[in-house]
Write a structure and sequence with these properties.
The protein has a two-stranded antiparallel sheet. The chain is mainly alpha-helical and about 120 residues long. The N and C termini lie far apart (about 30 Å). It has one domain: Orthogonal Bundle (Helicase, Ruva Protein, domain 3), CATH 1.10.8. Helix content is about 60%, strand content about 5%. It comes from Luteimonas salinisoli. This is DUF2200 domain-containing protein. Pfam families: DUF2200 (PF09966).
Length: about 120
């Protein structure tokens, strides 16, 4: 995909407020957004804050993630017209998985179901 490079260099700290805004419009909280992100990546709360503060790009954000949750392979569905389970590039798949989890949160899905 031609957008793969752009996605890798996109700053997580610039996208994070968009995740928050999307969730908060649907009466979800920052804590819930952070919990979903920490579940997927294995970051502690302070580790997540450090990534935001140092303005890591997505490539660094996922490369430094303590542990991508093994159940992330169970994340399926369509994000931006692309089936998550069909994405071969690991970085793009991780970004799209995160997008999908935030979408599910914003749609009112229970945290227990989001964090499979």
């Amino acid at each position: 995909m031609k957008n793969d490079h752009r996605m890798a260099t996109m700053k997580f700290s610039k996208v994070y407020p968009l995740y928050l805004a999307k969730a908060e419009r649907k009466q979800r909280t920052r804590e819930e957004v952070d919990q979903v992100i920490r579940w997927l990546t294995g970051y502690s709360d302070s580790g997540l804050r450090q990534q935001i503060d140092k303005e890591s790009d997505f490539q660094t954000f996922f490369a430094e993630a303590p542990a991508i949750h093994p159940n992330s392979a169970l994340i399926k569905g369509v994000v931006c017209g692309v089936r998550v389970e069909d994405i071969e590039d690991p970085l793009v798949r991780n970004v799209r998985c995160l997008d999908k989890l935030i979408d599910e949160l914003a749609k009112g899905k229970a945290l227990e179901k989001i964090m499979r």
